[in-house]
Specification:
Bound molecules: alpha-D-glucopyranose
Largest sheet: 7 strands, parallel
Shape: globular
Radius of gyration: 24 Å
Strand order of the largest sheet: 5-4-3-2-1-7-6
CATH architecture of the largest domain: Alpha-Beta Barrel
Number of helices: 12
Number of domains: 2
Order of helices and strands: HEHHHHEHEHHEHHEEHEHEEEEEEEEE
CATH class of the largest domain: Alpha Beta
Structural class: alpha/beta
């Protein structure tokens, strides 16, 4: 590798290439997170080893009987594709320390134990087959490694452990061709990037994969933020990672069938929030011990995919954001929310008006046309002053997939829009009372 840069120079250099490296990611919007490991086999959440204080020797027994069926990653990728997702991130090694690949530095892996197969290889092949970008989740924490906790106070243990983490990630980014995302997690017990030697390691990772995108969990800000279990916009690139049920990332082995999973509409709402605020949604599935996709994820994800086939223009691609912030420039109304690519404003109507009519305030420019996005059926409209009125629409929501109808308002160019203020007569601080006359 060429000579190591200072933190300042490294951050300058990665910032310069960021637009190029992130171009696909910024348009992709929707990815699949897969939490799979020995914890799936145990079925009590991926933190069980700590939460139940399971001794290493006892936990290791799971590795003997862990036996995902061949081709399981292909099922994950097929579902991701069907759901309209554009990339996948797999827990190549979670905090439990079990590697899902043929690691030379970590013999506690899926080739030496359990299935005796390289699950990471199967995952990479499946992503390529379905044309999905490839991400590796890689925990910094390791509950199985003897130096994993000693590194907090023992300098030699720290050196050994950071070398080990370095070597694991080098294997992942060397042996599987082009990899698109490196997704670090939990930098504990050390509390600084210096402790983790992240500056050196990440430079090395970028030398191996010049186009790679790295998340912000190695105690360096890197390429994107990772709000977890909440959809909070940041003033940088961000990706919300969300469980499928608000409960657990790893598979839960329930005695009775429980279904806490989000439905299609809930997922579409999350996508709207992300799309309108400059973020991505990384939605998790926790496959069953045999690797099959959790049954209660299949239907909602298939519906989301069907919905995206019809309404994808409101989600993917270059969406317009407010100057200086990460939120959509245009407003909607109390029944809907908006995304926009600049020329078209997409109203995601959650609550369909029984009257088949509604107004949207703040638009000083008249649209050229208004239509249902899913089939381009024109919608009658009138433009009065700063207000667009939609008329004679069906009395029931036309979207049968998830009850989220998208209406596209197409303009000649970016319309003039004034944010609503407290008074309808004083829109955007301007006296528009006169504009609103019939
Ligand atoms: C948390 C948890 C972990 C999960 C991750 C996903 O940090 O430790 O179990 O993998 O979030 O973002």
């Amino acid at each position: 590798m060429s000579k190591l840069l200072s933190k300042y120079d490294y951050e300058q250099q990665t910032a310069q290439s960021r637009d190029r490296r992130m171009a696909w990611w910024r348009e992709a919007r929707f990815g699949m997170f897969v939490h799979f490991g020995l914890y799936s086999h145990y079925g009590h959440n991926e933190w069980a080893m700590v939460q139940e204080n399971i001794p290493v020797k006892e936990y290791e027994k799971l590795a003997q009987s862990f036996n995902p069926k061949p081709g399981a990653p292909r099922e994950w990728a097929a579902l991701a594709k069907k759901a309209g997702m554009k990339y996948m991130v797999l827990t190549s090694r979670h905090h439990e320390g079990f590697s899902l690949w043929d690691s030379k530095v970590n013999p506690y892996n899926s080739v030496n134990y359990g299935p005796k197969r390289d699950i990471v290889r199967e995952f990479v092949d499946a992503c390529r087959e379905f044309d999905l970008k490839i991400g590796f989740y890689s925990s910094l924490m390791d509950w199985h490694h003897p130096d994993g906790w000693r590194c907090a106070f023992d300098v030699e243990a720290r050196k050994r452990f950071t070398d080990y983490i370095h070597a694991l990630n080098t294997e992942l980014l060397t042996n599987y061709g082009k990899i698109d995302i490196l997704w670090y997690d939990v930098s504990a017990p050390m509390e600084s990037w210096e402790g983790w030697d992240s500056l050196t390691r990440n430079q090395h990772m970028r030398a191996l994969q010049p186009d790679i995108i790295i998340n912000d969990r190695s105690r360096l800000p890197e390429d994107f933020g990772t709000p977890e279990e909440h959809l909070t916009a940041a003033d940088r690139d961000w990706e919300a990672c969300m469980t499928f049920n608000g409960l657990s990332w790893g598979y839960l082995d329930a005695a009775q069938a429980v279904n806490y999973s989000y439905n299609a509409q809930h997922i579409i709402r999350m996508l709207q929030t992300c799309s309108s605020k400059g973020g991505n949604l990384l939605l998790n599935i926790g496959p069953a011990p045999d690797g099959s996709v959790p049954a209660d994820a299949v239907e909602p994800l298939s519906q989301v995919g069907k919905w995206l086939q019809e309404n994808g223009d409101a989600v993917y691609g270059k969406l317009l954001k407010n100057e200086g912030s990460n939120t959509c420039w245009f407003g909607a109304n109390g029944l809907s929310k908006a995304t926009s690519d600049g020329k078209s404003v997409y109203l995601w109507v959650w609550v369909w008006p029984e009257s088949g009519e509604m107004g949207i305030g703040g638009y000083m420019t008249a649209p050229k046309s208004v239509r249902f996005l899913k089939d381009n059926t024109p919608i009658e409209f009138e433009h009065r002053g700063h207000r667009i009125l939609l008329k004679n629409m069906p009395k029931k929501s036309p979207d049968e997939t998830a009850d989220v109808t998208v209406i596209a308002m197409d303009f000649e160019e970016k319309p003039e829009y004034l944010f609503a203020s407290y008074y309808p007569q004083l829109h955007g601080g301007r006296d528009v009372a006169g504009d609103n006359k019939i």
